[in-house]
Amino acid sequence: MSKDPIVYPYIPNSVPEIKGRMLEEIGAGSTEELYAEIPSHLRFKGQLNLPEPILDEASIKRHVERLLQKNRNCAEYLSFLGAGCAQHYVPAVCDEINNRAEFLTAYVGESYADHGKWQAFFEYASLMGDLLEMDVLSCPLYDGPQAVATSLRMASRITGRTRVLLPESMGEETLSVVRNYLKGGGDSALQVDLIQFDPASGLVDIRDLKARLSDRTAAVVIENPGYLGVIETRAEEISRMVQAHGAELVVYADPISLGVMAPPASYGASFACGDFHPLGMHLLCGGGQGGFIATHDDMRYVAEFKDLMFGLTETVREGEYGFGEVLFERTSYGSREKGKEYTGTTTGLWAITAGVYLALLGPKGMQELGQVIMQKAQYAAKRIAGIPGVDVLFPTPFFKEFVVSFAGTGRSVKQVNQSLLEHRIIGGKDLSGEFPELGQSALYCVTEIMTKEDVDRLVTAVETVVGQG
Amino acid sequence: MGRNKATLLRKFHQARWDEEIICEMSVPGERGILVPRVEREIEAEVGDGVSMIPEGLRREKPAALPEVNQVRVLRHYLRLSQETMGADMTVDASEGTCTMKYSPKVHEQLVGNPGLRDIHPLQDEDTLQGILEVYFRLEEFLKEISGLDHFSFQPGGGAQGVYANACMVRAWHEARKDENRSEIITTLFSHPCDAASPATAGYKVVTLMPDESGYPDLEAMKAALSERTAGIFITNPEDTGIYNPRIDEFVKAAHEVGALCAYDQANANGILGITRAKEAGFDLCHFNIHKTFSSPHACMGHSTGAVGVAGELGRFLPVPRVTYNGTKYRLEYDRPESIGRVRCFFGNASTILRAYAWILQHGADGLREVAECSVLNNNYLLKKLSEIPGVVIQYAEGKRRLEQVRYSWDKLKQDTGVGTEDVMRRMADFGLQHYWMSHPPWIVPEPFTLEPCESYSKDDLDEYVAVLRQISREAYQDPQLVKNAPHNSVVHRVPSPGIDEPERIAVTWRQYQRKKRADSVKPQS
Amino acid sequence: MKTLGLIVNPVAGMGGRVGLKGSDGPEVLRLARERGATPEAPRRVSQALAAFAGTGDPVQWITCPGEMGEDVCRGVGLAPLVLSSIRGRETTWEDTERAAGLLLERGVDLLLFAGGDGTARNVCTAVGSRLVTLGIPAGVKIHSAVYAVTPRDAGELARRFLQGGLRSVREGEVMDIDEESYRQGVVDARLYGYLRVPVEDRYVQRMKAGGVASEAQALAGMAEEVVDSMQESEVFAIGPGTTTRAIMERLGLPGTLLGVDVVCNRRLVARDVSERELMDLTAGRRVKIVITVIGGQGYILGRGNQQIGPTLLRQVGKQGLLVIATKEKLASLGGRPLLVDTGDEALNRQLSGYLRVITGYEDYAIYKVGHS
């Protein structure tokens, strides 16, 4: 059976006549001739074993939509999952901007044709700087865990020390990235030591920190709020201890908490880092993450950032804004293996979106938002704690997440969550594998998108589920 | 009006809004968006919510963010978008090595589907069967395209993919108690991350310089290899678009000393279905999914660096792995020899979804058509550009290039004083994206690197060539015109765009304001 | 207003076209004229000055009378200030030195000179590192790394340097080649000194040419690598050059820039040694020799470091040679090999092949070595 050549809409020159004319122009008899440089023994001889193509747009759309229908999603279900990827409201303007073809399909263009992109990056850094009360941010990192890991390597380079302390209560998702990343550095690989947490409060155990902290410590990480949701109430005290040993304090912060919580810089952090996913990104199955690191305007710190930085300057026209690259040779683009770690394509579009988000929210919006989240989360915790057999573990103040123990119900988190699905509810993250010492516990996340009705629905469902025992 | 039919040139002017920085737009009291109110019952139950934050940890002073109404925020960012030359707007053969191919619009609709947009990575596997199937099937596709045996899509970009590969090389030697392998070897025309990512993983880096014909030097490679070599990280075709026909000999030599071989397939667009990592003997490879398999590049991400490995190395891949038991897709976390995670969760699902849909729309024949048309386009552009005064084609004379070429304006510079950066700035005046020059160090003088992938038509390329020919003509007739470019772009030339002096560094508005008061951020005249 | 000094060696290059490998000395010059040589320099200097035409940049030119600069300036429409105390005709090397000295007194922002190795040497004697200078290539012998690639490049570089677009300055070697033996086919090249020249950026992205910081960093890295490798009682012969000087700086030892210094146990054993002294100091010891690329042509042995002689090199062998150079320096060779010229053919062959070059701390390149 002979078939007509397919003309692909995404491949304009797949039209045979055009192809023929171009081949003629370059003096080749066939496209095959263009591969003359690849020796025969390196050629792939067969036909790739791929499915029959779905050529038309309508059919591919239907095919993929059917696949996606197999997923249960947090728009149709009520979800209490957070753990680094919480469901916040995404303003329509954020989607409008990051769906603009100009931003969506731009890449590494210079600052004339892509001036708008550079300005949007500058504004991202500026607005994050306002929120964090710090002067210096680079282009974004891959995600929050990467931001912690790089903060620690920066701290090590600055102090010349190689030991770092992280809270044991940090999520496995983050710790695993950090451990992997700090292993590099050959002889100077960073030694990771964990600070125990107080099982009663969920906070960093100050005595344990004291025992581990020394003049060889490069940096101490605290999370505020912590992975387990709690607000690190003794952050100022920790900060003083860390500074007394000449170490750097790295604070991993949830940026959406900063309308009501003090910026880490105010209690002595020399690094504020985290993930800006909450600022306008959808869940995207974990694809909406983006990392940030902020420091003060001190060249010892500025010189250690690993990613590109865009600085505001002027063009040849008096008063006209232009942009330039700051300390380009820090980066591996400029200096290959001698750059600070490696850089590459990360999460630019999400950084722009975070900027749009902060511009929309403004000071008042961020303040109100933080408050509403805390009120709703506290309400949910209070109601859940009222369910027989169910406890909220720590009496410590928390921001949007809290640990719920099902120990008293005789049911595992897995069982509870399975049953909740039948109520079209996605329960909190199961912590029983990650923190066996917390028993059958789950991390619940409540944000501004929840209503009282949603929380009440959860409570009724949990009551039903655990009552079935 | 319209494009001049004879010259193919446009009377172009990019949007120039002279837009302030958002921080300058604040009108006290304005609001961009209101947040959901808390119900009265909740307030009655828990109070104000924030007084439980201990003193000292409560924010005393609201953040100094601007106060801007929604209309103005939207308008501001729309204007900034107009001041950005996205690939959808132009013939982006400019950004060589970046494969600026068309990203089908239907994919954006699919990414906006709640079945992707609103799913959480920690949901029960039973509720993620659709996306896990996509991961699994895409892995099958890439196994076929590369010939390797296992893939992970966790890395959030190409450089992170190379990093994951370096970690796997490290884990492999550690598992064999082969502890003295402290070096990796790469070539200067491989992407900087092939040096930087292994260095971040703790390796010393040995670089091979190109020989006089621009090829990696096999003898130099042999001289570099030793029992200290952990692996080689090498791009092929290199950033010059030249295919290294002896690549298998490099691999063989490396294997002989017990090193692993990692193939950087960032430049794979011209070889899909033509040649693979497997046939060349590689143990690991990575693809830039967003480049070769079509995802919008999104102002430098989100993106995916897919890492593939052969055989035994599979046990070192990052967790979780997506598996299938014939009825159900699962996320497998319990893999004791895994390097762990290089990024949280399991990658950028939206990039994965787009790549899956894109490959499925092409099939085996279509992928080959992609490869052939990208190579055809490139050799066509090469032919046309070689006719422009001032352009030098360095290396591999008379040989066919694959998907891209590193060109040189060295002759133009010597004849007219107009160099590659001048030409680059001038391109913006004709509605083209600035081209990519080269990573440093420049071995090809006054370089520029073009990659006219399969998305561009013959007419697109003819227009592109017409612009470069025009700029060359201008350089010979009126060099100052080119040197003072751009003229029709968003802004004018920045006299000193490399900002290294502490007093000029202003990466945030706070910093700029402070330094402006000290009057030190102005460019030097 | 920026000031720019210009010195033209009007007879430079005259020997070249008539096969005379240089024009040092009145006798050779006479011979050249007899063979029909005409001055090359004025044409080349005009090519360089063309870069300033029509830019409208206010620059004060200061130059010598007549053929030493004034003529060519006026020829392209410039109105220079003329140093009247210098002769304008039948000039000698003494005039070049005197003119350079006067321009130093005036503190010009940049001193442009046209000539070859001899001219560079005269300028070097007069101004040392006190001025930023740049050579317009006009001479026959150019082994000194203080000349731009073409006259036009020189003009471009000079213009941009004065405008402030280029701020990186490097130290370029001034080589002193004995013309007489050169004519006999023997290159006897000494490293005479260094001039400060703006960094050529054909290979460097202008907007990203931080240059200075990263070069300093790379130098420090290479020095650290070498110092870390020093073992007890091993003797290190540190060859001449700014790159190797970084090692002495790292050790805190007062080394010489142009000579070979000997170090053992991180202490200075001797400075500026001759070949003989070096042989005595290294006899019966484990020895490492640290060398770098000298001059623009890629020589690592036999140009400016002849104190490291063939006898010692034979003893030490290839494995005892530590070659240090930045990747940028290697890249600028355009794929051409590094060169050795020990004066001993068999040894040259033995040292050829591939060498591991130290390009930074724990950072290496493998590079080809050949011989002429």
Characterization of this structure:
- The complex is a heterotrimer of chains A (469), B (525) and C (372).
- By secondary structure, chain A is an alpha/beta fold.
- Chain A has helices spanning 16-26, 57-69, 92-98, 101-104, 115-132, 144-159, 172-182, 206-212, 235-244, 299-302, 332-335, 348-385, 413-422, 452-467; strands at residues 78-79, 136-137, 163-167, 191-195, 217-224, 248-253, 271-275, 291-295, 310-314, 321-326, 391-392, 401-405, 425-426, 429-430, 441-445.
- Chain A contains 14 helices and 15 strands.
- In chain A, the strands form 4 sheets. In chain A, strands 2-8-7-6-5-3-4 form a 7-stranded mixed beta sheet, with helices on both faces.
- In chain B, the strands form 3 sheets. Chain B has a 7-stranded mixed beta sheet, sandwiched between helices. Chain B has a 3-stranded antiparallel beta sheet with strand order 10-11-12, with no helix packed on it.
- In chain B, strand 8 and strand 9 (329-332) form a beta hairpin.
- The mean pLDDT of chain B is 95.
- Chain C is α/β, with parallel strands linked by helices and 372 residues long.
- The radius of gyration of chain C is 21 Å and the shape is globular.
- Chains in contact: A-B, A-C, B-C.
- Chains A and C meet through loops of A and helix 8 of C.
- Strand 3 of chain B pairs parallel with strand 16 of chain C.
Write a compact overview of the structure shown.
Chain A is an alpha/beta fold and 469 residues long. Chain A has helices spanning 16-26, 57-69, 92-98, 101-104, 115-132, 144-159, 172-182, 206-212, 235-244, 299-302, 332-335, 348-385, 413-422, 452-467, and strands at 78-79, 136-137, 163-167, 191-195, 217-224, 248-253, 271-275, 291-295, 310-314, 321-326, 391-392, 401-405, 425-426, 429-430, 441-445.
